[in-house]
Structure formats: C-alpha cells, structure tokens
Amino acid sequence: MLAINAVPPSDYLVADKGYDSNALRSWLIERGTTPVIPSKSNRKVQIEHDRQIYRQRNVVERMFCRFKDWRRVATRFDRNIKTFMATIAIAAFVTWWL
Known about the structure:
This protein is 48% helix and 6% strand. It contains five helices and two strands. A two-stranded parallel sheet has the order 1-2. The radius of gyration is 17 Å and the shape is elongated.
C-alpha cells in the first residue's frame, strides 16, 4: 500500500466515504492511527466513526478553498519551495488576520 515512512504519524486520519476500505483501515490501525472515515452506504456492516472529529473536517476543506483563491498557490506557480512556502504564509496572513 504506502511506504511506512511516506506519511508522518498522527493520532487520527479524517477522510470522506471515498476512502472507506478495509485495507486502508487496517494499515492505519497497524501504525497507531485511528481512522475517522464514515462507512459507505453499500457496506454490509457499518463501521462507527467519531462524528465530532469528522465535523471538523470542513474547517480544513474551507482553508484549502481559501488558498485556491490565490492563483499562485492553486497552480503552484513558484518553483522554489522557500518562495512557495512564503506565498502560503502571506496568503494565510491575508486570509485570516486582515
């Protein structure tokens, strides 16, 4: 599936129904991450998930939508990683604090 060191460790992985698979869930549990993924409607045995943590998912989605308003961030116009990260910092500052 994924290389073990490819994804940094975390307590939870919050994803939508498109990521509902037994293979992904078992891999997450093996590495100590709690999957917060609602079950697909066609799953025979529905798997419970933490609804309060899942509700917070939209905050992250809204953040990415705000970043996409900045063309340079959405298209990754900057080729240098330092310049790109500086653009993200400026976009975050203007979006939330001004």
